[in-house]
Amino acid sequence: MLQTNTAGTSDYEQAIAEAKAAIIAKMTLSVGKDPGYATDRDWFVATALAARDRVTHRFLGGKRASKADGKKRVYYLSLEFLIGRQLTDVLYNFELYDIFRAALGDLGVDIERVREAEPDAALGNGGLGRLAACFMESMATLGIPAYGYGIRYDHGLFRQVIKDGWQQEFPETWLENGTPWEFLRSDVTYDIRFGGSVETKTVNNVPRFIWHPSEVVHAVAYDTPIVGWRGSNVNPLRLWSARAADPIALSLFNKGDHVGALSDQARSAAISKVLYPSDETAAGQELRLRQEYFFVSASLQDLINRHIRIYGDLYSLPDRAAIQLNDTHPAVAIAEMMRILLDDHNLRWDEAWRITSSTFSYTNHTLLPEALETWPLPLFERLLPRHLQIIYFINNLHLEATKKNFPNEPELLSSVSIIDERDGRRLRMGQLAFIGSHTINGVSALHTDLMKETTFRDLNRVYPGRIQNKTNGITFRRWLQQSNPGLTKLLCEVCGEEVLDKPELIKRLEEHADDPALQQRIAKIKRANKVVLCKIVTDRLGFRVEADSLFDVQIKRQHEYKRQLLNLLETVALYDAIRSNPTADWAPRVKIFAGKAAASYVAAKLIIKLANDIAKTVNNDPSVQGKLKVVFLPNYNVSLAEKIIPAADLSEQISTAGMEASGTGNMKLALNGALTIGTLDGANIEIKDNVGDDNIFIFGLTAAEVEERKRAGAPTATDNIAASPMLRQVLDAIGGGVFSPDDPNRFKPIIDGLRSQDRYMLTDDFDSYWAAQRRVDELWNQPEKWTRAAIVNIANMAWFSSDRTIAEYAEQIWKVPV
Ligand code: CRA
Asked: Where on the chain is N6-(pyridoxal phosphate)lysine found, per UniProt (predicted)?
């Protein structure tokens, strides 16, 4: 029952009236506009500022409390935070969404349009960055005092435009008009030093190292509050922006060199200008190393200042701070922490090492060799001469100890050394992160096992017990409650409202899996979500797709190991098969693709072109009308994912086994009732264990079989192709220019690659993938059974909540109470 107050209005009406007044006040006094002339963006800013006021009180209250209670803090260091839009997230988590929607409605403004006026904060490439954003939200939800530390890129991940089927990249400009969510903390500014030389002095018989840098850049803090579920807690995401120490060289300016006077400014500001758009390949350039050290140094100075302010000295750091390295991108932090302790605080080596190695932990996100970060020694030395000395020292001690413990295995030393002596001398950041951390984790059960068997096998022998598994998770607030309100409402009805706080209660849904009434309701919700997506397809691509078709989606970064190409080969095979046997029981399908390729990744960009060329041919062929459509939705980002995921029927998770560390899109899709077609890779395995073998379509080689075949060198792609007439026909068609009559040789490199090397073993898995797709058709043609399987999927996904993942990190790695 709503309370009625003395003025005769209910609390709810009162709340709406207050929200309205707050929005109007922001519109006039902060945006400076008369509401009658406001644009959607103005409404967004006014609404966000009104919402932010509520957040800020909680934010400052929380900071005061955690300062006082001496709780251990978690510092999550990540070069990427792929946040997306924040308005709905903040309103929803603060349980203000309905109130603000009504308030805006009273003002004649549709909240949906306001929401869409917010640009995505795309400070990340893909899974790793999105995971960091989910983790920040879960840490706030669980009441863990945590700081996220990263870079405030002026330009996030590029905007993808598809022109004549080719990907084009355009700069992304989320900060063009500022963002209402952040607070500039100009008083929180640190000097970040680069280059120069190191002087050695002996003071009281102790050698001291004095770094004389040649360059200083300022790091300025911007805080964005991250709101936990039900507004329980608010934690800061602190992002650093680079500024020149001297904004302008006046002497040059006065001499008339106006451009030269600003060149230092430009060189410094370049550090936080743009996100590196590579995903799973090491960026390898000097600017990237500058970015890494820049945000690491600022973050460590900041957290050490805070610690000293509260606790007086640094000996207790490991008891009060846990620093998580999100991949090796911040691994230079190990050397920077040692430098601060040794050179700035005069600690002894042993003491400094104890503090460092009991404070840091490191998450590995990939075993792909091309993604493992290494730096040429000369480059590293030029930028960070003192850090290189420290790393040499760490390495010597580590190798000495290894020699002692494994006296008969000299070859072990080269594999566990931080320095790779093979291809020019290079620093291996994975080794550094491993050696300097108390715990190292993988992101799914299989990935963690493979870490122990492959890349980190020898380090795992030298430091046994350090590797743990922490299977990834996703925040249900964004990926279920906000993006799929229809399904959320049903879950609340069937499982009880408490399901919003206890995801394990979703399991109750399974009791009703056979109930035709529930099945119909689930199917209806899915259809409504599909209708929304149909409209997006029509708006963006200008053609229609049918909501009654099976929506078969593969949405993720474009990467050869993810095998979008395998899906395309099957699409062509299906296209051929439908045409030659039009009356068979094909499930009408819409194949939906979305994802960006790194700008320099030629092979992945050619596969995008292939998808678009196939789409053009198939969609214009009347003989498959109503049976097959192919859609490539441009500019995949968090906001588009929020629309595609609730509308998906089938989730493509078809990487070569052993190559996808975890995946998180797989979790989002299954939670929203899509059935997975996938290999036994990454977290697919754990999804299968949870939803059961009958409710997932598994195919292909296992990771062990992939390894075995690679070792044995047989059967080869040639054998595979010879054994599959269907595959042969598909390759001939694509290679022969059927989909590229304007340039018949366009896709020859792709086909030649498959015929010769087939590094990702598409030809090994093609037939079994085809067969799995036909099992999909068969189930789709029994709608009750399909929906039943979808219900069982939804009901069994609770374990994939990032709250569970974070609780495990907290208990088993960070040792902070939850
Ligand atoms: N590309 C993995 O490939 C994993 C995420 C988050 C990735 C995914 O399988 O789900 O990390 N790895 O753990 C990565 O970025 C540098 O490595 C990814 O997002």
From this structure: 668
